[in-house]
Specification:
One of its GO terms (cellular component) is cytoplasm. This protein is of the alpha/beta class. The chain is 31% helix and 21% strand. α5 links the parallel β7 and β8. The N terminus is likely disordered. It binds 6-phosphogluconic acid (6PG). 6-phosphogluconic acid binds next to loops.
């Protein structure tokens, strides 16, 4: 799998676009086009320009592909600006194939992280991801032997403030689904959990909770993040309200820029007390991958990919433009009726 480089311009009018647009204009001028010609060809030019903006071309293994898609990540290299096609959507009919694709992607990121570093730093979420990871990394015999668990450092993109063996704990889920299923003798990964000794209240409920301790839990978890707060891969789910991590619709946490880990005491989805990655952590990752399956996700995916004005948290993460590669791993049912170009991994 190779990262594709986009040669064409993006549709919107971000500040970032200016140098490229100017560059394109300068090129056109230096090609000897005069003002008079431009007036005459105005309408045609507008149509061509419109078409050009909507068309993306990229070269893959010596072949040039051209299609309509909105690239969203700008990369500047050796003086020239390029777009990296992101997000990419990978879709398969069967759940087993989605898990296989996720597994291969995890391996790819693991191997690339270990080429330059000592550990593979991965963040996980809750929901159905535990099941997918078990299928991908434990049950899949092509993938399982290639997972270097002893080199993994695991984080949670969000965590519920509950005991680690509580059914609501994201660590608990990973532990039950994956860690406990590792073959005997496997060196376990380093897993960063919330500090259980700071827990107050019952089962993540607000009554009896000491908010000062919860804030300490968030601070403590923040201190466990890598110094450069760079994660190699963040695996995310997408809730029916478009939430991801514990970033919920309408919640002010979206604007948090000072903290890497935030505390939320009023999660609309139980349990109410949680900690979560903030945007600065997501923006700084090497790669983000969403996993979403089932026809129930289709309306949300339709909004994410077909409504440019949407403010869904998952859409805002999908559209991050800091250079992080964003991929979606879905099954065909999840993108039924969604206008998006998907490929197999
Ligand atoms: O903490 C939560 O509220 C959930 O864990 C949540 O963030 C989950 O990732 C999504 O709801 C997707 O869940 P599914 O993958 O099960 O659809």
């Amino acid at each position: 799998m190779k990262k594709t480089r986009i040669k064409e311009e993006e549709e919107d009018d971000d500040e970032d676009d200016k140098p490229i647009k100017q560059e394109a204009q300068e090129k056109e001028e230096s090609n000897g086009k005069n003002d008079e010609d431009e007036d005459d060809d105005d309408d045609d030019d507008d149509d061509d320009e419109e078409e050009r903006k909507r068309t993306t071309t990229f070269n893959f293994d010596g072949v040039t592909y051209s299609f309509k898609e909105r690239p969203s990540v700008l990369e500047e290299k050796e003086g020239s600006a390029k777009y990296i096609m992101s997000p990419k959507v990978y879709s398969h009919a069967e759940s087993a194939d989605v898990a296989n694709a996720v597994g291969k992607h995890v391996l790819k990121l693991q191997n690339s992280a270990l080429e330059s570093g000592l550990t593979f730093k991965i963040a996980l979420s809750g929901g159905s991801l535990g099941k997918v990871l078990k299928k991908a990394l434990i049950d899949n015999q092509d993938i399982a032997p290639k997972v270097k668990w002893d080199k993994w450092e695991v984080f949670f993109s969000d965590e519920r403030i509950v005991p680690l063996d509580h059914p609501d704990s994201n660590f608990g889920l990973f532990n039950e689904m994956v860690l406990k299923s590792l073959p005997e003798g496997t060196t376990k990964p380093k897993v960063n959990t919330i500090n259980e000794s700071l827990l107050t209240g019952q089962d993540g409920q607000t009554s009896g909770a000491d908010q000062a301790k919860d804030l300490e839990i968030a601070k403590d978890y923040q201190s466990k993040l890598p110094k450069d707060h760079k994660l190699d891969l963040i695996l995310l789910g997408c809730g029916p309200d478009g939430h991801t991590c514990s970033l919920f619709p309408g919640h002010q946490l979206l604007n948090e820029r000072n903290e890497l880990i935030s505390y939320i005491s009023d999660s609309p989805k139980p349990p109410p007390r949680r900690i979560t990655f903030t945007f600065p952590v997501l923006e700084n990752a090497v790669s983000i991958a969403f996993v979403a399956e089932g026809e129930g996700k289709a309306p949300i995916l339709k909004e994410i990919f077909n409504d440019p004005s949407s403010k869904l948290r998952s859409k805002l993460v999908t559209d991050i433009k800091t250079g992080v590669e964003v991929n979606w791993f879905v099954n065909d049912a999840a993108i039924n009726g969604v206008d998006v170009i998907a490929s197999k991994y």
